[in-house]
Every structure is written in structure tokens, then in C-alpha cells.
Amino acid sequence: MNYSINEVPGRLRVTTPMMLGNPLRAAAVQVYLKALNGILSAETNLSAGSIEIRYDAQIVRSEQIIQILTDRGYLSPIRLDQDAQLLSRKISITKDKGRTIVTHIMTAVIP
């Protein structure tokens, strides 16, 4: 699965296979993001599996938006089935040479 996050102040472009060709998920994230304080626009591209988010950097930080997308499953490469028991979840967001790096670690017991 390919994920990417491109960022310039006030704009994020996130590519995730969770949205690739999935109009329901794309519409849901668009509606959700547009309702958040500080989000100016959220436009999806189903064929690319991407969403471009324009935001007011004085109200919301890019890290917060990435965290929201991660929490809602758009940047989570691992999906647990309903019988799995999640033991821990750690998400870290770092910046390196102008890139945003999201590390998502989940520990679970899968019967």
C-alpha cells in the first residue's frame, strides 16, 4: 500500500489506498473535514486516491489533521477484524527534510 503526505503551509495533499476508487469513503472524509474549525476546503481525487486539504495554519496544525485522518482509518495500513484485541496503538508524526513522516504501530492479539 502506498501512502504519501505532501505539505506546504496551509495545504496538505494526502494519498491513501483507503480512498482509491471509493466514493463513499471520499465523501465521508470530505464532509467530516469541512466541518472542522480551520479547514477551508477538502477536495478528493478518486482515481489518485488523494485528498487536498486547505487549512488556516493559525487555527489548525497539519499534525492535527494528519492525526484526525489516522484516527479515522485513512492512514492506517492495518485493519483489525472484530475478534482482534487491540493492546496498544502508537502514532508519531515527525518532519525530516521537509517531509512529514507518520509512523503507526499497533499491537494486537488476533485469535
Q: Overview of this structure, please?
A:
- The chain is α+β, with helices and mostly antiparallel strands and 111 residues long.
- It has a domain at 4-79: Alpha-Beta Plaits, CATH 3.30.70.
- The protein is 20% helix and 41% strand.
- The protein contains 2 helices and 6 strands; from the N terminus they run ββαββαββ.
- It has helices at residues 23-34, 62-71; strands at 4-8, 11-15, 39-45, 50-55, 85-96, 99-109.
- The strands form 2 sheets. The chain has a 4-stranded antiparallel sheet, covered by helices on one side. Strands 5-6 form a two-stranded antiparallel ribbon.
- The two termini are 24 Å apart.
Runs in which pLDDT lies below 50 for 5 or more consecutive residues are none
Distance between the termini: 24 Å
Percent helix, as a range, is: 10-25%
Summing up helix and strand content along with how strands pair, one would put the structural category as alpha+beta
In a nutshell, what does this entry contain?
This protein is of the alpha+beta class and 111 residues long.
